[in-house]
Specification:
The complex is a heterodimer of chains A (164) and B (156). Chain A is an all-alpha fold and 164 residues long. Chain A contains eight helices and no strands. Chain A folds into two domains: 85 residues, RNA polymerase sigma factor, region 2, helix turn helix motif (Rna Polymerase Sigma Factor, Chain: A), CATH 1.10.1740.10; 74 residues, Orthogonal Bundle (Arc Repressor Mutant, subunit A), CATH 1.10.10.10. Chain B is built from four helices and seven strands; from the N terminus they run H-E-H-H-E-E-E-E-E-E-H. Chain B has 156 residues and is an alpha+beta fold. Chain B has a single domain, classed as Alpha-D-Glucose-1,6-Bisphosphate, Chain A, domain 4 (2-Layer Sandwich). The chains are: A mainly alpha (164), B alpha+beta (156). Chains A and B meet through helix 2, helix 3, helix 5 and helix 6 of A and helix 1 of B.
Amino acid sequence: MDLEDVVRAAQRGEPLALAALLRALGPYVGRICGAIALDDGDDAMQETMIRVLKGVRRLREPAALHGWVRRIAVREALKLARARRPLVPVEQLPEPPAGIVPELPVEVADTLRQLPPEQRAILFLRELEGFTEAEAAALLDIPAGTAKSRLHRARQAFRRRWQG
Amino acid sequence: MSQWPAAQLNPVRQLRVLAEVLPGVGLVERVLDAPYERVWSFLTDLEQSVPAFDPMVRSLRVLSRQGSRLVVVTRTSFLPISSRFEVELRDGWCLMRSGTYLVGMAAEPLGEQTRYAHLEGLPCHRAQALRILRPVFRRVVSGDINGIIRTLATSR
């Protein structure tokens, strides 16, 4: 069964198809929620999947699935990250150990942890997902100018954490 | 920045999602005092495990198996009724669906113990009024989990 068939069956409420859709979307949603919500990524992913499976019957075109899911995942991850992580100014955080190369996920996570969730979100959308600034701004419901300045600050902060 | 942290939805969390989405089901979670490998190897032997822990099932027979997909038939204990279930069976995950009933089992290791989630109810997506049945199915599920705990204890 291809993804479109899975979506159609999930829209009919077929439990095995709902489970199949969970699995099919898992890596994609996990990447978004993990990058933005970090330690709370699993919780954000669970909330995202609940919203996706509850709303899938209203999705008119299965081809639009990933765009629709992406929007939900970004919002849920940001909501959870904002709620659970009190912001700490970058200047007050400890420096990472010298000489570390950002290759391991845990090291990247340590650096991302030091950014506000809003900066993590736009960095993820721009650097990993390849969206333009305008597209990322639309996904985050912010003006294009805000996206541009936020991305600039996020890149600076990320580099500063690595380069000391 | 090629390797970003990724989140995961383990089988227990996947079952929680289904329980939120399907109105007419009940979900119960427990920590079982047995290692995951022992719990899951017991549960996945469906022909032995289901009649052992569920008093409503007299027998279960596997009709076919193709990868993670099985077809099984159950016979009830008190009435001569047979039900055909489509089953999806993976590591830590089992979902069984007949025309009128749904059973879900999920497990994950928790040190020397096992976090176990069990769901039963009606495989219906839309009828929100079925939420009224959730406590009923939770009681049914609690009975089944007690049966699993008893069976694991007696087979040590």
